[in-house]
Design brief:
Length: about 325
Amino acid sequence: MTDGPVPGKRITIRDVAKSAGVSYQTVSRALNDKGEIDTTTKQRVLDTAKRLGYRPSRFARGLVRQDSTSVGLVIPNLLNPYFTEVAAGALDAARRKDWHVVVYDTADDERQELSTLGMIGSQVDAVVGYFSQPDDVIDRYTSGMPVVQIGRTDVGARFGEIRVDGEEGVHAAIAHLASTGRRRIGMLDHDHHHQPSVRYSWYCDAMREHGLPTFVAEAPQSIEGGQRAMAAMLEKHPELDAIFTYNDVIAIGAMFQARLLGRRVPADFAVIGFDGLAIGNMVEPPLSSVRIDTRKVGETAIDQVGQLLSGTRPEVATIKATLLLRGSA
């Protein structure tokens, strides 16, 4: 008899039936509070379902075809085109499997993330996405469900894991700027919880390699945030001749602001973002960036869900970023 949830495996009604020593139909009657079942048996079934971590799916109860798998994609901000591109990759991969994807936007808010985790178990068969909550919290809310975490490292053993490694790409970006004569290269990092990002550490390491000083400021992850942060940075450090940013959205705002302040991009001021989004081709000059294959991130997440649903924990997937030179650097 199973003693508890099996890591990485979705608990089914048949699992509950086998553990409780009853038929599939008896479990269905107990869970749906139907008649023709005695009180003792019903309670045994309910206790077994709770112990195993069984979560009934609204989709499995009829919102979509019963033979279809539904995946919840949890992202912090749909307005950020990075997450839109990741979602597009996941949707394409899911369509090839004839699966359904439900997208949840947590607005980069911890309370909203908890609320989403609280309801997601009854709506989907598996979860992929970006989470700020610790593993034990995610596990508590998604017990028995396959979960793939994106963009984090050293997650719990029952989770799928996709890492984004931009270290070589950031080093290549700084090396390129240094080779073109830039010596005052700043960084606009994100302002999430006022904690430096891993991209900040990559920037600092790369700057040390070239014996260059660091100049860092925080920026909200938006075009307007990039504009405001760039204005403040250039007021404090007018000697800057290049900027590297946490992501492309911030970079586009920074580039707009630098040009408003009379800087010629890239003649006397270079700009390099991070993500390599398609939107970078829509600005003038086109934005150079440390590029992530965003669609591959989404596709890999769906592939890992498939492995978890089959009872196998996938190997950690690492998506490496590379330098993409366009017109801004």
